[in-house]
Fold this sequence. Notes:
This protein is α/β, with parallel strands linked by helices. The protein has nine helices and ten strands. Strands 3-2-1-4-5 form a five-stranded mixed β-sheet. A five-stranded mixed β-sheet has the order 8-7-6-9-10, with helices on both faces.
Amino acid sequence: MSKQNGLLVGGVDGGGTTFKCCISTAEGEILRSERFVTARPEDTMDACSDFFVRCAKAGQPPEGIGIACFGPLDIDPQSANYGSILNTPKAGWSGFNVRNELADRTGLPVSVDTDVNGALGAEMAWGAARGAKSAVYVTVGTGIGAGIFANGDFLGRPSHPEFGHIRVTRHRDDIYGGSCSFHGDCLEGLTSAPAVEARFGPPELMAPDHPGWEIVACYLAQACISLTLTLRPEKIVLGGGLLLAPGLIDHIREQYAAMLNGYLYMPTDAVAQLIVLPGLGDNAGLLGGAKLALQSLVSQ
């Protein structure tokens, strides 16, 4: 009998704006979930712990928890600081150990990885990158990050990539200085949700034909080209709140093809199959956390 039969696990998607928690089966079926505003770290961990305690009392006790969390993050299991958030612009979170704090509150084994590694793992198991041997998940929200899987593992271990801080060529009409507190006009500084809102207003209120989307698509297309030319992944999954904008994925694909300028022969349908939205939608990170817990439990 498989060690996965009947397992229930807890998943946490730790974002800079929202934390989400779930109870999931080993097959990736979410049985219940809740979301909380990302507040003070102690208060946020209290809310997560309370969710899992209530689930246990309701007859759905998780055997372990996985956290797919914003970073930068110490994801080395051999490190004394495994699970600690490093130098983040998110006030109050630098140095906070999400793994230890949640484990202490729940008494359960807790695994941790980056939000994008978690989301990519879930997409490769149950979503848009299922069956791919190499894939990238890029999240575009409060920040920007990328999880990269190739040659049987996630790239960058025991650390992780910081793809959101690569440099991009400025759009000719963009004079914004950038929102990144470390690098100004890096990819994250020009394309994250706060950067978009700073010059165009709330993204959810921008019309589909707003000229700002052309600028956003320009930078994300450059990011996809960098990934293609360096890694040649089978799938590039673009997730995060900003990708909910109607038509943005199509603008990115169009600019991607135009910027390549025929260098790589890629028919239109091939670009659409390469650059995709998450098959798991808003649950990619949440199920990524659940998959982390599952992997940890079945490997014991």
